[in-house]
Design brief:
The protein is built from 17 helices and 29 strands. It is about 25% helix and about 35% strand. It folds into 3 domains: about 475 residues, Glycosyl hydrolase domain, family 43 (Tachylectin-2, Chain A, 5 Propeller), CATH 2.115.10; about 140 residues, Immunoglobulin-like (Sandwich); about 50 residues, no CATH class. The protein is globular and about 95 Å long.
């Protein structure tokens, strides 16, 4: 069949694009789920990690400030089971991703269809069940460090193994909590998969079309509703209080109740624009359909923000599926709204995408990715060989995908901002008040904002990626060592801090953590109208790992002794000051570090305030302007980068007052001969140990 006009025949490219779409459809199916006027100031991102217990893969979060309990409360989405490397390898081998990529490279439609028909339905079903998402619940006193109360406060019904719940939105009305959330309607049984998968590769076009339509119809998203009297135990959900139709899906609700009025909901609405006729055409002409036609199909997709109202939270009326959009086309979609009413206007933060990708870019990316040999990676994942995996990933990222990385620069999701007088029309956008990643790449994207306003200050939690595409970052992300939730605030305040090495009253060498002042981040002027500092959290990073020990942290009034329960992780905090502190070059903690490494390995130590907590509004995080760094080498008293007899001489002279303390790196000096559990002091024995080391009477560890 010859296609003419708009559908001018280009067989070679058409096959590649058809293969790409079919492959992406298979992979998407395999990972099916839900992907997911006040003087507002630009947001400043918090530089530390937001920690949510040991939960991995948190995809989105919803936060409220509970004034009755003076605590932040978060509901969040995550996979119900942690995915191990061996499970990922099973997933890749289960769909035989290498075969998909080989078919793409060879542009062999028949091979791909044969591959689909041979997929193991039971393995695919189990993979989908294992990757389903649930909603968890956590609390926090500072909005940064979260205590997980229950990782599964809300799940899909037991009989629906493949359904996901996600995108929670919670409001507290009086003493009751109300949650609206997204649920996938996936209700495939193993028997259905065993029937439909072979049909996708059938030589009968009608069977293929029917299979595709059945799978689409069984995998939509709706919005459910539940209530609770404590935020943890939820009532039997009311299903599908808002749903779509044959071409529309709804998700990611945001609900407000302004005063004693009705409930108002903003939600994501995706209209594919793809009809049964489109699918029939694609199946019938899979070998001849042009890239232009396929590109036009994505341009028919509309991702918009919808709106509805309700008097009870269950029955929704006045539904408008497009009160705000970025235009047609999948690349112009907007989603995941969060709306705040400031007493005059409705302010909305939302996810949107930016890209300069063309069809030619996608062709080049597919070609390059098709050349990657996945078999060695799969073997390393099955063996859980992290060292080997890191090395192979490093080779792929550094050497094998330069074209992909270059062409993807400038493609990312961001958080936008718009305001409206009535919440439905006349939206004015100003992304100055949104948020972007640092590198403008897909892996450094930000999305799914949750914003609250307290006493004129806005706080945002959002989903984030990794700043740099490296093998180590990917493995850390996979293992849960990098948080996928970020925090930012619109406060113009920043904290000017420093850390300085000193000798405490009992002679022990300490590092003083100091807050010099709170200042306006724009003008630099000192700020005092924040109710003082009521708490802090500090973390210490050491590179390379090992060689430094956190011995103790000494409390300083008004904060007292900090909590050291995460001492082994080099973290400590104090959240309850006796009285709020107006900082003026104020020491808030004295850190007792000990160098335990050898005399030839230097260590970089970064000390940062993960959170500095303001008194007004209570719990507001003031970001640190710049973290503080030190370089230590055990025994290098004169700080010249080498341990020799001159270091012994400096220490000896210091002990008899022939040198001032400022002339020494006193932690390097004090850590030579270690003085027990209270910390280390500088004395003549440190000089003696170094002198003995220089003539080989002691080893590099001064033993």
């Amino acid at each position: 069949m010859e296609i003419t006009g708009r559908f001018h025949r280009q067989p070679r490219k058409a096959k590649k694009w058809m293969l790409a779409l079919l492959s992406l459809a298979i992979i998407s199916f395999g990972f099916s789920g839900i992907n997911s006027v006040l003087a507002v100031s630009p947001f400043i991102q918090h530089t530390g990690e937001v920690t949510i217990g040991d939960i991995q893969g948190v995809a989105d979060s919803w936060v409220i400030w509970d004034e009755d309990e003076d605590v932040y409360k978060m509901w969040f989405t995550h996979p119900k089971t942690d995915v191990s490397p061996s499970q990922v390898s099973s997933l890749i081998t289960g769909i035989d991703l290498q075969a998909v990529l080989d078919a793409l490279e060879a542009q062999d439609v028949e091979a791909l269809l044969d591959h689909i028909s041979n997929l193991n339905a039971e393995e695919l079903y189990n993979m989908l069940a294992d990757s389903a998402t649930v909603i968890g619940y956590a609390t926090s006193s500072d909005g940064i460090t979260w205590n997980v109360i229950d990782p599964e406060v809300l799940t899909a019904e037991d009989e629906h193994d493949l359904q996901n719940v996600a995108n929670p939105c919670v409001i507290k009305d009086g003493n009751d909590y109300h949650m609206w959330y997204t649920r996938s309607t996936t209700d495939y049984t193993l028997a259905v998969l065993e029937e439909k998968l072979p049909d996708l590769a059938s030589e009968n076009d009608e069977e293929v079309v029917t299979a595709i339509l059945d799978l689409i119809a069984g995998n939509r998203t709706v919005i459910d509703y539940a209530t609770s009297n404590d935020g943890e135990s939820w009532s039997e959900p009311t299903p599908a209080v808002l749903s779509g139709d044959t071409v529309n899906n709804v998700a990611a609700p945001c609900v407000l109740k302004v005063g004693d009025g009705d409930y108002r909901m903003w939600f994501s609405n995706v209209s594919t624009g793809i009809t049964q006729e489109d699918i029939e055409y694609l199946v019938e002409n899979k070998d001849t359909v042009t890239t232009e036609y396929l590109w036009d199909l994505q341009e028919d997709v509309t991702g918009s923000i919808g709106y509805a109202t309700s008097i009870d939270g269950e029955s929704w009326d006045n539904i408008d599926r497009n009160v705000f959009s970025g235009g047609t086309g999948a690349l112009n979609a907007v989603a995941a709204p969060c709306v705040v009413y400031n007493g005059t206007d409705y302010e909305m933060w939302y996810t949107y995408g930016v890209t300069a990708l063309t069809r030619e870019d996608i062709d080049a990316i597919i070609d390059e990715l098709s050349e990657i040999d996945l078999d060695p990676l799969i073997a390393l994942m099955e063996d859980e060989d992290y060292d080997g995996l890191l090395e192979d990933l490093r080779t792929i990222i550094d050497d094998e995908i330069p074209e992909t990385k270059t062409r993807l620069e400038g493609t990312a999701t961001r958080i936008g901002y718009a305001s409206s007088a009535d919440g439905t029309s006349g939206w004015e956008t100003d992304n100055t008040y949104g948020l972007t990643g640092t590198s403008n790449t897909p892996w450094d994207s930000v999305a799914c904002p949750c914003v609250i306003e307290r006493d004129g200050v806005y706080q945002m939690w959002f989903t984030k990626g990794i700043e740099e595409l490296t093998s180590q970052n990917l493995v850390d992300l996979w293992q849960g060592n990098i948080s996928t939730i970020g925090y930012a605030s619109s406060s113009a305040m920043v904290a000017e801090t420093e850390t300085r090495i000193a000798v405490d009253g009992d002679g022990v060498v300490v590092i003083e953590a100091v807050i010099n002042r709170i200042k306006d981040g724009v003008t630099g002027e000192t700020v005092t109208d924040f109710g003082g500092i009521t708490g802090y959290r500090i973390s210490i990073e050491v590179e390379p790992l090992g060689g430094v020990e956190l011995v103790d942290v000494r409390g300083v009034a008004p904060f007292g002794v900090p909590d050291l329960s995460d001492k082994e992780e080099f973290e400590f905090w104090c959240y309850e000051a006796e009285t709020p502190l107006q900082p003026d070059n104020s020491v808030v903690a004295k850190i007792v570090l000990r160098l335990t490494g050898d005399a030839v390995t230097p260590y970089d130590v970064n000390i940062k305030f993960d959170s500095i907590i303001a008194g007004e509004p209570a719990g507001l995080i003031i970001p640190e302007e710049e973290e503080n760094s030190h370089n230590f080498l055990r025994g290098d008293a004169n700080n010249d980068g080498i341990v020799d007899i001159f270091d012994a001489m400096y220490i000896a002279q210091y002990t008899v007052d022939l040198r001032e303390i400022e002339e020494l790196n006193i932690l390097n000096a004090a850590s030579v001969m270690q003085d027990g559990v209270i910390g280390d002091k500088i004395d003549i024995f440190d000089a003696m140990y170094i002198a003995q080391y220089t003539v080989d009477l002691r080893d590099t560890y001064f033993e």
